[in-house]
Amino acid sequence: MAKPYDLDERISEYIKKSSPSKLVPQYQVGSKVKVRITRLVDFGAFVVTMDPFALSGLIHNRHIPKEQELHVGQVIEAKVKEVKEDNKIEFRLDENLTVHEAFADLEVLKEKLPDHSSKVKPPDETKEIIHFLSKEFGIISDESKKKVEEMVNEVGVFRFTLSMMKILPVFKRDLVYHFLKEVEQVRDSL
């Protein structure tokens, strides 16, 4: 009895030999294709496309995430990495993008977004921070509000809030203490 992967390979070869070359699909690099795993080897997984052309290909180990388990007969979606001259295809699994490929994909998405300056912060978030500080400390001067806005614009809402939350538990809330610190600074400068 023939093994399933032998049968798949023989069918694939028959289709290739009997199909006119003009009918061979033109896969684009980066396009997603459903494939069935026909054989697992030390260096990767042999696959066949799930379309009428049943073209064979390979997913090399370096393009398979370590946590992903594959088995013969499994149908998965893979990305076309390269199409060879003999119509053999090299695939990769989407989760295993290289850093360069991931940033390239993000750049394409970024181009489609409306242009907004990264320094522009939603005024509501800054107001919420000021409101939070007024609950913690009472009255906040206009000078302090302006300083909060400047700091949020400089480092961003996330970093400002993170810094603020680290300091709050240990911060001395005694106004007299801070007043005396100011008096010391003025005294030392005289």
The portion of residues forming beta strands comes to 15-25%
Q: CATH homologous superfamily of the largest domain?
A: Nucleic acid-binding proteins
At the first level of CATH, what is the class of the largest domain? Answer: Mainly Beta
CATH architectural label of the largest domain: Beta Barrel
Strand order, sheet with most strands: 1-2-3-5-4
Could you walk me through the main structural features you see in this protein, from its secondary elements to its overall organization?
- By secondary structure, the chain is α+β, with helices and mostly antiparallel strands.
- The protein has two domains: 4-99, OB fold (Dihydrolipoamide Acetyltransferase, E2P); 123-189, no CATH class.
- The protein contains six helices and five strands; from the N terminus they run H-E-E-E-E-E-H-H-H-H-H.
- It has a five-stranded mixed beta barrel with strand order 1-2-3-5-4.
- Strand 4 and strand 5 form a beta hairpin.
- The longest helix is centred in the N-terminal third of the chain and has 15 residues, at 4-18.
- It is rod-shaped and about 95 Å long.
- The relative contact order is 0.09.
- The mean pLDDT is 78.
What layout of secondary structure does this protein have?
Blueprint: H1 4-18, E1 32-41, E2 44-49, E3 56-60, E4 75-83, E5 89-92, H2 99-112, H3 123-137, H4 142-155, H5 157-167, H6 175-189
Helix pairs in contact: 4-5
